[in-house]
Amino acid sequence: MDENGLTVNLIGYHVEAVDGRIGTVDAVSDEIGEGYLVIDTGPWIFGHKVMLPASVITQVDASHRKIYVDRTQKEISNAPDFIMADDPPQRPYAERFPYGIP
To answer: Tell me, what DSSP letter sits at residue 101?
Structure first.
């Protein structure tokens, strides 16, 4: 949600790690308690797509279309690869996050 309490479509937003830009949001799941982002790291890691729990988001800047996360570029690059499937990842896949989901 933005500062006015409105839902914001995060697809296409730039993702800023604590140590710099890491990519853009490619997909979003907003399931309660299991939300995640698929980040396309683009040329930074040669088109690598990773999955991050929504709980790592610290700030959403809708005016600049940026999301800030509390992870480093290295932590994000080590996150699980996102592999396209017809269905969203199930819980065992989500447990592969190197820093877990609460």
So the answer is: -
